[in-house]
Amino acid sequence: MKKGIHPKYTDATITCVCGNVIKTRSTKKDIKVEICSNCHPFITGEQKIVDTAGRIESFRKKYSGVETKKKK
Questions:
Q1: Spacing of C-alpha 12 from chain mean position
Q2: Residue 16 contacts by C-beta under 8 Å, 6 or more apart in sequence?
Q3: Residue 36: which of 26, 21, 52 has the closest Cα?
Q4: What is the dihedral sign for C-alpha 48, 49, 53, 57?
Q5: Do residues 20 and 33 make contact, with C-beta atoms less than 8 angstroms apart?
Q6: What is the SS3 assignment for 7?
């Protein structure tokens, strides 16, 4: 390997919004995530809606008066 072209690989802490903290190694020191292996819906079996910046509410507000067409 060439010297001086690779970033430093140091100890890192990954912090999830659920409070889970994972110690690992990375080129970044602190990493913050919204979903981790402890709170992911596939692992827990529970559906969790992650709403960033009110996207779900704006979608429901926009399409609240629209009715779906029924097939005959």
A1: 18
A2: 22, 32, 33, 34, 35, 36, 38, 39
A3: 21
A4: negative
A5: no
A6: coil
Name the residue among 6, 16, 14, 11 with its Cα closest to residue 44: 16
Q: What is the pLDDT of residues 19-55, one digit of tens each?
A: 889 999 999 999 998 888 787 766 666 766 666 667 7
DSSP 8: P
| Residue ranges per structural domain of the chain | 10-62
d(CA 16, CA 47): 17
For residue 20, give the amino acid letter: N
Four-residue CA torsion sign, 30, 35, 39, 42: negative
The pTM assigned to this predicted structure is 0.52
CATH for 10-62 is: 4.10.80.400
